[in-house]
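Deliverable D2.4 — example input (structure tokens):
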């Protein structure tokens, strides 16, 4: 292992800027890549990003080694490539990166949503990538953050622990060891099916947005999303979706966390049902609804999270009528076929595989992937 791990951060949005500046402040060599030069012009001119933070959190000027819109240049030297872009861009990043990657590099999707590492690996394989790289995914973004200006970022909090899994899982210890100096918060997420099927945003975001569609469009999102938007009836719908997700995981031999368990673990929010638990979470107070239905809660979470969960359910004999209804509603509202655009099993490279074959593939990497 080299003396100090070098990083490339792909994406200069909220998360990418926070991560790049924080890594630089920790003393790592950091390259920041963004495909649109205008988006990083000020950062390039200044040579880095000013990071502000919560009391006691990381802050200061993070000096970057390189700021570029040339992907080949960005991938030339790093040991670790942190992909911090919407999951809808994972496939195109993989396709563009395939010919530039080199042996021994680690790619981490922050986060993978559902099936991120599977899709990224399949695209690399189909694009003819010859490099021996390890692809991993985080269960969620480590930072709660926002962009404060063209060369400024702000971190509100850093999570205490975030599950991470490599594909196959036999490589997870290697990835955790490589990241440990910078990010001891990453913990073993068991497998990419575990990280993907414990994706709570899939349950909370799309249905809650669609069930409040009229209110969002008539008020421009001027209401508290989780407080006003989660009524007893809406919460019952979320409970059905959550039960389907947990059942899909169970069909694959995975004990997924329920939304109630997650609220208790993450926020110590308790209740006899989801309505009570959400309303007992003071952190949700003040979080406003999306201003429009053209929002990542639908455009990203439906195709990249709900579609793969539903596809796994259909393949392995689980009723996913609730999840499918949300996908259909989103498709109607946006006049888009989210099933076609989403992460179906063929896009994940696991179509036609039995439960045992899928699990062997994600744990050991040994299953012959159907059709490839």
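Example output (designed residues):
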């Amino acid at each position: 292992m080299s003396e100090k791990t070098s990083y490339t951060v792909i994406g200069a949005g909220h998360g990418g800027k926070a991560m790049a500046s924080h890594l630089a402040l920790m003393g790592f060599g950091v390259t920041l890549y963004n495909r649109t030069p205008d988006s990083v012009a000020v950062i390039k001119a200044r040579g880095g990003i000013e990071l502000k933070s919560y009391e006691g959190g990381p802050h200061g000027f993070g000096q970057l080694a390189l700021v570029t819109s040339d992907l080949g240049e960005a991938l030339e030297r790093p040991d670790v490539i942190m992909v911090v872009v919407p999951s809808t861009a994972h496939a195109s990043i993989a396709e563009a990166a395939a010919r530039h990657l080199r042996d021994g590099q680690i790619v981490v999707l922050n986060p993978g949503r559902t099936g991120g590492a599977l899709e990224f690996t399949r695209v690399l394989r189909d694009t003819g990538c010859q490099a021996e790289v390890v692809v991993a995914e985080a269960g969620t973004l480590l930072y709660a953050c926002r962009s404060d200006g063209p060369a400024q970022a702000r971190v509100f909090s850093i999570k205490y622990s975030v599950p991470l899994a490599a594909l196959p899982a036999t490589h997870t210890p290697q990835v955790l060891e490589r990241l440990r100096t910078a990010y001891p918060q990453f913990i073993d997420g068991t497998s990419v099916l575990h990280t993907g099927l414990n994706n709570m945003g899939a349950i909370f975001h799309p249905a809650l947005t669609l069930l409040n569609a009229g209110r969002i469009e008539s008020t421009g999102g001027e209401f508290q999303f989780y407080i006003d938007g989660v009524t007893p009836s809406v919460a019952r719908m979320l409970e059905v979706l959550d039960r389907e997700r947990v059942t899909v995981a169970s069909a694959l031999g995975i004990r997924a966390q329920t939304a109630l368990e997650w609220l208790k673990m993450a926020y110590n929010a308790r209740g006899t049902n989801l309505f009570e638990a959400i309303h007992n979470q003071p952190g949700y107070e003040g979080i406003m609804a999306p201003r429009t239905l053209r929002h990542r809660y639908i455009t990203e979470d439906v195709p990249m999270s709900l579609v793969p969960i539903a596809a796994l359910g259909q393949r392995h004999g689980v009723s996913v009528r609730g999840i499918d209804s949300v996908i259909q509603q989103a498709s109607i509202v946006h006049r888009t076929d989210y099933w076609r655009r989403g992460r179906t099993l063929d896009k994940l490279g696991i179509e036609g595989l039995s439960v045992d074959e899928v699990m062997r593939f994600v744990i050991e990497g040994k299953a012959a992937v159907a059709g490839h």
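The first strand starts at residue 7 and ends at 10.
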